[in-house]
Amino acid sequence: MAKTVTKRKAKPSSKVAQKPNPTLSRTNKRSAKEMQEWYEKNKNTIETFKKAQEALDLLQVQNPTKSATKAFSTFTKENLRTYLENPFSNSKNLRNLSKYLYYRSQVYRRLIQYNANMINLQYRSVIPPFQITEDNDPQTVLQSYADTLSLLEKMNLNLAFKPACITAFREDVFFGCAYLDDTGFFILPIDPDYCKIAGVYGDGSLAFWMDMTYFQKNADYLEYWGEPFQTMWKEYQKDTMNNRYQPMPEEHCVCLKVDMTDWQNPIPPFIGLFDSLINLEDLKNITAIVDEQQIYKMLVATVPLISGSDDVDDFAVDLKTAAIYFNLIKDALPNYTTALLSPIPIKDIQFNGDQTSDVNKVENATKSVLNISGGAQVLNSSSIDGTTAWNGAIRSDEDMALSSLLPQIQTIVNRLVSTQLSNPSKIKFIGVTTYTVDAFRDSVIKACTYGVPNKLLIGTLNGFSELDTLSMAYLENDILQLPQKFIPLQSSNTQDTSHINGDSQTLTTDGEKSIDKRDKAKG
Question: Is 226 left (phi over 0), alpha (psi -120 to 50) or beta?
Fold first, then answer.
């Protein structure tokens, strides 16, 4: 069993400043922007789709236009069921199959993206360091808060972590190397076939090893990627037998896993759907062929026999003449229509099927896949009846999508921020989604009316970062002075009711008339 990786804490400092990084000035240290540009340019040659083709070796895909024995590979669906019976020893095959289904099945792709899109890292609260039993220096607290907000603006977390979340829900695990500097933030995906989880850091986030033999086949990547890979490669070269797996440095390590109950065995989370998804794709292919056949038509032209004649083949029309006219008819036929010359009576032949029934079969099969997925009932909204059921389905899906990955991302982000700042603030992500943020925002506003300090949180729930909210508040209140120019209408929400009780209360004219009317009614 892998050992727990203990995180070394930085020594406390009275000054709040960015930590010096001696590797930043080295030529073999790539910036986050350089790595992102390189990856976008070269991802077609290193990304997952070519490996997804390996999944074709896992199953027999029937070609509906050919005979039933035709297959694209020598494997069968029985092989797939064998892999499912022993998934731990076939995790690579199942992972590649999941990639293939992600590109092949629109239902599976929507299911993966639905769960990944539940995670919105804009919904957050940044909490500066605070000591309850000691005096707190306002300038130190403010500087910590300002430095953390500035760093978060550079990181653009939603953009950086979205591909990682999609990969994690598709394959159960994501391995990446983080690049964080003045140019921005980028997470370089690393081939999971060459990685394995090593343990956990002190904060609970996962650590992983990387197999250095990866660079034996990809030496050009090692040259460009630079640090930390070149240092890891040098350690491997010292002892290629025992140093094959090198730990990803803590300041670069990004590792996510959906199923944390067994973090040593990565198995796709939706493995139970694979058989149903394959059957659904086969059904859709067959239905497409049936639909195509329905537009075909064959016309049969007959050569009539002489009535009453006892001779065999005693045609009423000369065959050569019939052939001439037949060719003229054939040349005039539209697409998807053919003709046949025969002594059989003229008949219109069509390849019709029950199109409605075929469509219903695909629709019902799609609903079945979504229903047995254990979540994503919203994608099959016709099965949800009523607001209560809808809200319950959303909360169930939300819990499934957020409960595992969101806490992991939170610990990773805080760890990465702590490598850049000597006195960082804590980042806390809020477990809500675009489906439930409105209700949660209302509860936050209600809490604010009782004095709970959540004003900036309201801004992030509305899609504005803390710096955006503070900047707009300064613009509107101090520069434009909009509160003095835009005066709200008087209502029960805007009136001062602090003196309603007591002799010193001040009433409006309408209020006085109301009291007089009430007194007269009492006699």
Answer: left
